[in-house]
Structure formats: C-alpha cells, structure tokens
Amino acid sequence: MNNQITVIELEHVFFAYQKHLILEDVSLKVQKGEFLAIIGPNGAGKTTLLKLMLGLLKPQKGNIYLFGKPVAMWDKIKNRIGYVPQTATIDASFPINVEEFVMTGRYGILRGTMRPQKKDWQIVAKVLEEVGIAEIKHRQIGELSGGQRQKMLIARALAGEPEVLVLDEPMTAIDPESMEGIYELLKRLHQQNLTIITVSHDVGVVAQYSDNIACVNRKVVKHGRPEEVLREEVLTAMYGKEAAFFHHGPIPHIVVQAESEPCFPRKKED
User: Fold this and answer.
1) To which CATH superfamily is domain 36-56+77-234 assigned?
2) pLDDT confidence of residue 238
3) What is the pTM assigned to this prediction?
4) Cα→Cα distances 68→79, 121, 127, 137, 235, Å
5) Residues 6+ apart with CB under 8 A from 130
C-alpha cells in the first residue's frame, strides 16, 4: 500500500440535519490502496460520512478533498469512485438482464446518448468474471438471490473502472455463505491495489480483511490498525457499557448491543 498518496481527506468536518448534529469535528484520511472499514452503532453517522466523502452531502463546516481536489469538483472526478449504496432500489420485474444492468455502471463514462461500444462490453464481461457471476449474465435481474444481487451491484460499480470502491453495508440481507464470498471478492480487489471503503457491523470479520478501521459515533472515536483499534475500551466508548464483547483471540469478533445510549448523545430539538 502506498501511504504517501491521500485519495480522500476530511478536515474538521461538521454536519447536521436541521438542528440534529450528526457528525462533529471529523478529520480522516484514506490512503491509496487502503482497505478501510468504518464501524459504529446505528445512528452514529456512518452513512452520512460516506455521503460527505462522495460529495452527495455538503458539510456545514470543514473541508473535504477527493484526490487532492475540493469535493465541490465531484462532477469532474466522480468516475474515479465506484459506489454501492446500502439499499439499491431495483425493480425486479424490469426486463433487463445482469449484463445489461452492469453496463449501466459505464453510462457516466459514455456520456449523453453514446451507445456502448465493443470495448465497453468487454469491460463488463471482465467485471462479471471477476465478481463470479459471468454464468448468469443473461438472467433477468428479478431471478437473483441476495448474494448474486449484491455481486451484481458491486460489478456495476466496478464497470466504471474506479480507483476507489465505496460500499455502505454490503452484507445486509444476505446469507453467511454469500457474505464470505463477497468479503473474499473484496480481498481480491484490494490485492489489485483498489482502494476500498466499507461500512460494516461485522466487527470481527472486517478486522480480518481491512488495513485500518475507523470507529465512528458522531466523532471519530478511534482510527488505526485493527489490533490497535478493536480494544474493549474503544468498543465500549462506541456501543455503550451494556454492549457485550465475545473474544476468540485478541480481537472481539461479536458485538451484541443492548438498548444503550451512544457515547455522544444527540441534542434534542428546542
């Protein structure tokens, strides 16, 4: 991993919805080739943090840079980032197959009414092979399992040949076997020097795959290597004193959160 090239940087970022402070004084750097996992309790601001990184939201205070350029220039550099949202609204009855759906990931490159060329279909074919769904490329999208659908969404993000892949809770609503397959896919992509940022609740699993972990609960509670970050005192600060941590080795791999208050309670509206 090249630690000298910063692809995303946040400097003292604040963000609020109306009077509700969601993120407070967040500073964070993501380096080229890094696999960063962002963890934290529900409502901690993880998805908001991703959207700020992507230029989909604007901070009230602070600066955000993508590839050294202000996030306001997002439209000029958006094709360098592939995004897999937490919940993608897909009309399962729409008459489109997997291959055609993945091609939509190249529309930002094609621009306007330009039709896909031979090169574009070759790139899509390569991506389908890479994520392991080439054999179902002609299947209608409504016929896919949860794991297959998630791989299709990742393939669509990769079809644009991004330098950074951003995923928001990619393991939601899929079975454990499919989950393992997707983590292995992300591992292979990371080994190809693709920068990966993912939000996850799977504390122990992401510790096995990621280079660094950012613990977020309104603030960045801790950011560093998994073995440095995933300590019981840090997890307690994020998930509350009533959370339970199960240890198999030095890193807690299961977090069971009771109805505990976050360590940075939200401010109520006046």
Assistant:
1) P-loop containing nucleotide triphosphate hydrolases (3.40.50.300)
2) 76
3) 0.85
4) 15, 32, 28, 37, 32
5) 155, 158, 185, 188, 189
